[in-house]
Amino acid sequence: MMTCRGIRGATTVRENSRSEILSATEELLRALIEANHLDPSEIASAIFTVTPDLDAAFPAEAARRMGWNRVPLLDTVAPHPPDGLPRCIRILIHWNTDRPPSTVRHIYLRDAVGLRPDLQQEKGGQEGAGLVETDPAPGAIAGAVASPGVSGPATIVVAYQGESGAYSQEAIYQHFGPHVSAMPCPTFEAIFTAVEEGQATTGLLPVENSQTGSITQAYDLLLERDLRVVGEVKLRVRHCLLALPGTTFADIRRVRSHPQALAQCERYLKHRGWEMVPAYDTAGAARELAATREPSTAVIASALAAQIYGLEVLEAGIEDSSENTTRFFLLGREEPPPAAYSKTSIVFANPHVPGALYNALGEFARRGINLTKIESRPRRNRPWHYVFYVDMEGHWRDPAVHQALMGLLTRTAFVKLLGSYPAAPEVNDHAD
To answer: Is 12 a catalytic residue?
Structure first.
C-alpha cells in the first residue's frame, strides 16, 4: 500500500470571472504537475478552496479540462480565511506515492507567495512570481517536537486519523494555531508511521473520551511502537448539525454521522423525529453531503467541517451531554523539558503473584505521587496476564517520580516510559 502525501498550492486571480479562475487554476495545476511529476492515476483526491469573493464552481472544471477525469474533486469556500488574502484559490492534493517526502513540492503563485513569509525563495514579489516549498527532510523537522505546546511555523506537520474536518484536526488547530499543517491518515497505525518515517513532525492520537472511556487500540499501539508522548491536548467536543446552504429544519428527514456521534446526540435527534443513518466518519459524512447534495439530509460533524466543505451550521452544541471531552496524546521523538505542570505516562507488567499490583502501586503512594489514571489491558502474548497503563503527576526527572520508577523496576516484569510531557489545561465543559 502506497503512502498518501499531501501537496499544497495556491494562487490568486485579478477578478471573479470564469476565464480568470480557469486560467489561474490551470497555471497552478501545471506548475504542480511539473514540480512533482504528477500522474493523475496516482492522485487519490483533490480539494479546491476559494475565498468568498470567488465562484467555487470553476477550479474543479479546470482540472477536468486538463484530463483529471477519474480524480475525485471537491470545490469548497473558506468563509473566514485567516490570512485575509482576497481572490485566492488553494488546492490540497492527496497523492498516492512511495516517493520520499523530500521529493514533494508545494507551489505558490502570484500574490499567494505572501502566504509563506517563512520561505525566502521569492522572485521579486511581482505578480506572476512563484514560490516553491520543499518538504523538509526527516532529520530537519525532528527538533520541532521538543516544544509541542508552542505554535510553530508551517514546517510543523501534525498527523491525525480521519478526514479533513475531523475533530482531531480541530484539536490540532486549538493546540498549535490555524497555520499548522494537518496531515490526515487513514488509521491510527498510519499516524505512528508518518512520524517514524519523517512525513510528519508529530502525531495526534486520541486516547480517551469522557463519555465512552479509553480507546484501547491507541493504548495497544503506545506499547507496541517506540514514539514518545510529548504533549497532551483536551478538546471539548461540540457536535454541530450541518446541512447544505438554504436548508431549513423543516426540510430535514434524516441525519447521517458516525454511530458514536449519533449516540451522543440521540435525545436531540429523537425529539425531532429524524432518522439516524450511520456513516463511517463525521467529517466523511460532511464531505459526502457536500459532494452528493442529497436533499432532506443533514449531518453531525464539527464546525471546522462546515467551513471546509461549504456547509451551513444549523445548530451547534447539539450533544446530549455538555461534558463530552476527548483527550489526545501528541507523539514525537524528542523529549520536552519539564513544565510547570507535567504528567508522566508509563505501562508495566507484574509477576503473576499475590500482592504484586499492591506493591507496585505502593512505590508511588509512599512518595506522595498522585496517579491520575490506571487501566489494565490484556497482554497479547500471554493469555490472562495484564499490563497496566498509569498516568501520574510530575516529570520523570523529578526526584520523587524518578525514585518511584526505579523502585517499580525492581517489582515488575517490565516498565516502559511512554513519556513525560506538559499537562493540558482543564477544559471548561460548560463553556458556551
So the answer is: no
